[in-house]
Amino acid sequence: AMTLGLTACGGIIDQGNVGVRTTFGKTSPEAEQPGIYVAILSSVREYTTKESAIALDNMTPKAKDNLSLREMDITVYYTTVGSKIPGLQVKYSGQSARGEHGIWFPAYNLVENMARTAAYEEVAKQDSLTIHQHREDVAAAIKANIQKELDKNDPGVFTITRVVMRQVFTDPAIEQSILRAVQVQKEIEAKKQEIELAKAEAQRTVAEAQGT
Predict the structure, then answer these.
(1) Main-chain phi, psi angles of 138, to 5 degrees
(2) What angle separates helix 108-123 from helix 135-153, to the nearest 10 degrees?
(3) Residue 207 burial by CB count (10 A; 0-12/13-18/19+): exposed, middle or buried?
(4) 4, 134, 168, 199: which has the fewest C-beta neighbours closer than 10 Å?
(5) Which pLDDT tens digit goes with each residue over 101-112?
């Protein structure tokens, strides 16, 4: 009965999450820990400290050779230190995102913007014709760059756990150029072989004439 009475003026924070209490517009610096909380003259938002995913889809960054990719999709995973989340809410107001079941993702928009910028910067260092061969290297570089930027203003608060490059496609015109380049190379090799055969035949004819 007591529990029901308390939850009627509060709620329950799940394991792996923390709460941020606001009273008359002022945010408490201390995070609410998992369990039952009471909020009579205040409100509490529940934030996750578990690994969260940010999907960046349909990006068309420009590569080193000044050609844009047709599509690049990546997913960035990050975690946040629970005790720091109340401070983040004050420092980055409006940067968090509300997910399913009313759970909030701390500084989601901030991390998303940094991830997008890092992705475009790293693609700009790669050739569009060969970037698909270096997916893991590009993902690792994006991860390192995001972490570096986050640590500039909030050291030890965020951790970029992994970056996955799900797919990358070059422009159809570029793909045709690749196929044509391969075809031309094969034609050149074939012509070289024909020339070598002609030289060998000529040398054989000369040798026969000298023998005669």
Answers:
(1) -65, -45
(2) 130
(3) exposed
(4) 4
(5) 899 999 999 999
